[in-house]
Amino acid sequence: MTVAARKSTAKAKTSPKLTYHGVTIQSPPGRSRFTPEQIRKAVKAAIAKNPNALSAGK
Amino acid sequence: MPSRPASEPAPARSVFINCPFDETYEPLLRAACFTIMACGLTPRCALDFSDSGSVRLTEIVRLITRCERSIHDISRVELDAASGLPRFNMPLELGADLGLRLEGPKAQRRRKTLILDSAKHRYDISLSDISGLDIEAHGSDPTRVIKAVRDWLNANRGEGPVFPGAKAIAEDFAALDAYVPQIARELRLDPHDELPHADFLFVVAQALPLIEQARRDKGSP
């Protein structure tokens, strides 16, 4: 594997592309107190614990 | 390590927001930020620099020049009960933006600007010179903010696929709003410790695909 390919693989591992209905989500400005993984886990847990929220606003 | 962007967002993908930063306005600001991120763009505002949003005008103008699109909410240009005077910070920043668009450097003249107000044609009385620009009324309703912002971004998206619809974005925003207290608990925050603006944006970035996936799993995309 070339150096460029290794760098590309490492980048892909650290920042997976987030998409929403086919649109690529940009990184927010500033910084959070939490890691993306901590936030992702918190959001997943909140969705699992409150499935009825998907009906909110309908 | 805390989340941190690799570099400043590109101007072509950045949307400047000029609005109040108080508790009453927060649902509208969050609705606008959620919509901008759902459309693949980055919301920028004075809260990027300061939790209170108190930033010098020079920094605000610099930030405006780094965003090709701007949203200005002038709904709070009203008489303050205590002083009997209106606050003019938002019209001032709108004026700076329009000055760049009209007579600024060439790169700034293709700027796109959306003006939001609480009611239709209210500006006719206080700021009639802006007639002819893109102006939408939101009635202090987050769903109307989402529709106004999404439709304006979509109309000015240039080439590329159509952005997600306003109804879908509004439903997903309502779902996230219901999840936020639990998300705060999962992050071990106290109930009274609201998610600050920066944390909220990072939550939105992670939540958009997860909510889309949850709807798909439920059979209702």
Task: Summarize the entry for a quick read.
The complex is a heterodimer of chains A (58) and B (221). Chain A is mainly alpha-helical and 58 residues long.
Describe the overall structure.
The complex is a heterodimer of chains A (58) and B (221). In chain A, 45% of the residues lie in helices and 7% in strands. By secondary structure, chain A is mainly alpha-helical. Chain A has one domain. Chain A has a two-stranded antiparallel sheet. Chain B is an alpha/beta fold and 221 residues long. Chain B has a domain at 11-159: Rossmann fold. Chain B has a 5-stranded parallel β-sheet, sandwiched between helices. The longest helix of chain B is centred in the C-terminal third of the chain and has 22 residues, at 197-218. Chain B starts with 13 loop residues before the first strand and ends with a helix. The chains are: A mainly alpha (58), B alpha/beta (221). Chains A and B meet through strand 1, strand 2 and helix 2 of A and strand 2, helix 6 and helix 7 of B.
Short key terms for the protein model shown above:
heterodimer, A: 58 residues, 7% strand, B: 221 residues, alpha/beta, Rossmann fold, 5 strands
CATH topology label of the domain at 11-159 in chain B: Rossmann fold
Report the order of strands and helices of chain B.
EHEHEHEHEHHH
Determine the fraction of residues in helical runs of chain A and give it as a percent range: 40-55%
Low-confidence stretches of chain A: none
- CATH architecture type of the domain at 11-159 in chain B: 3-Layer(aba) Sandwich
Summarize the biggest pleated sheet of chain B. Answer: 5 strands, parallel
Q: Main β-sheet of chain A: number of strands, strand sense, barrel status?
A: 2 strands, antiparallel
Shape of chain A: extended
Determine the CATH superfamily of the domain at 11-159 in chain B: Response regulator
Strand order of the largest sheet of chain A: 1-2
CATH class of the domain at 11-159 in chain B: Alpha Beta
Oligomeric state of this protein: heterodimer
Strand order of the largest sheet of chain B: 2-1-3-4-5
How many distinct domains of chain A? 1
Q: What is the SS-derived class of chain A?
A: mainly alpha
Beta content of chain A: 5-15%
Radius of gyration of chain A: 16 Å
**Average of per-residue pLDDT values of chain A:** 82
